[in-house]
Specification:
alpha/beta; Aldehyde Dehydrogenase, Chain A, domain 1; Aldehyde Dehydrogenase, Chain A, domain 2; 2 domains; five-stranded parallel sheet; four-stranded parallel sheet; 16 helices; 11 strands; 14% strand
Length: 373
């Protein structure tokens, strides 16, 4: 694997992976599942090697990238075990290959069926997160697809070891050579990968708007673009306020850099005076920069209001960038109807975590499921 990184061109890597995809598509479920188990075992047996490589990436990234980026880059034993569990969970899924999803008999007696088949060769282009190397490889192998991985140069050490783990373990279980391949992390290779028409069947980018834009401008291969998320937490009028505060803090602070971290806080107007001051103070004390509307920031607590206003001055230059959602939590005070309108205006599917006493889990029975996007 490591030799392929230095001696093979993008075209050569993709051509070899395409050949592997044809054999992989015909393999029985038992062989693919055995390969996934071998990958899980190898992740555990080579844990020290993986973590050592990752430590090198993290050390090099310190001071060069924001803290949220470094967090996404970082692996530890807990996250590594999560990767192992993820591979085994994928192995336990039903094999999608050969599943009949539709069909009927024509009047002349001819049976028509729509059957799931592998795509062929999937390329995944991603940033920062080395766990994607294993997640994407496992999903593709389970579904009978070969995969070409192109990760971030910031995670080059980690990705090289992880891709070798996946490739070596898969081959030992009977999967074809080149079923998992890794390209170097330089941006110059994106254009060549994105124009491998007839070889690469699909590209899936996992990253920011810059990565998506670089593909949109040149891709001749089909690309699946994931929309930018905007995760909402909505605190309903009857919410348990202690629970709501804990949910808000956890949703934003546990891992601010992940795609399901909270980015918008919606609060019912009846809670403006009793809830907003305390939750905004807690968020501010935790280092969260808050960007809000006039009603949400017109708080009776002068200290919080002054601090928020100072932070707003600092963030106005960054508002046009989508990446600011990793660092700023917008606050809004409004009723459920306007909250739904806000949800409906967003350009991506969003979630709302709702706190209320009416249900065991504290989730209010609102119409978001029916009226929200």
């Amino acid at each position: 694997m490591s030799m392929a990184l230095t001696t093979m061109s993008v075209t050569e890597v993709c051509t070899a992976a395409k050949r592997a995809s044809r054999e992989l598509a015909t393999l029985p479920s038992a062989v693919k599942d055995r390969a996934l188990e071998e990958i899980a075992v190898a992740l555990q047996s080579r844990a020290e090697e993986i973590l050592e490589a990752n430590a090198g990436d993290v050390e090099a990234a310190q001071g060069e990238y924001p803290a949220a980026f470094v967090d996404k880059l970082t692996l530890n034993r807990s996250r590594l075990e999560g990767m192992v569990a993820g591979v085994r969970a994928i192995a336990a899924l039903p094999d999608p290959v050969g599943e009949v999803i539709d069909g009927h008999r024509l009047p002349n007696g001819l049976d028509l069926r729509r059957v799931r088949v592998p795509l062929g060769l999937v390329a995944v282009v991603y940033e920062a997160r080395p766990n994607v190397t294993i997640d994407a490889a496992a999903l593709c192998l389970k579904s009978g697809n070969a995969i070409v991985l192109r990760g971030s140069s910031a995670a080059a050490r980690s990705n090289r070891v992880l891709a070798d783990v996946a490739c070596t373990a898969a081959q030992s279980a009977g999967l074809p050579a080149d079923c998992v391949s890794l390209l170097r992390g330089g941006r110059e290779e994106i254009a060549e990968l994105a124009t491998q028409s007839g070889v690469v069947d699909l590209i899936v980018p996992r990253g920011g708007e810059g990565l998506k834009a670089s593909l949109k401008g040149v891709a001749t291969v089909p690309v699946i673009f994931a929309a930018s998320g905007n995760c909402h937490v909505y605190v309903e009028a009857s919410a348990d306020l202690d629970m709501a505060e804990a949910i808000v803090l956890n949703a934003k602070l546990q891992r601010p850099g992940v795609c399901n971290a909270a980015e918008t806080l919606l609060v019912h107007e009846s809670l403006t005076d009793v809830f907003l001051p305390r939750v905004l103070a807690s968020l501010s004390q935790a280092g969260v920069v808050l960007h809000g509307d006039e009603r949400a920031l017109a708080e009776p607590d002068e200290h919080v209001a002054v601090e928020l206003n100072a932070m707003l001055v600092l963030c106005t230059k960054r508002v046009e960038r989508r990446q600011f959602l990793l660092d700023f939590l917008k606050t809004r005070s409004d009723g459920a109807k306007q909250s739904l309108a806000c949800l409906g205006r967003r350009d991506a599917a969003e979630r709302a975590a709702l706190g209320a006493r009416e249900r065991r889990a504290g989730l209010a029975r609102l119409r978001i499921g029916r009226e929200g996007d």
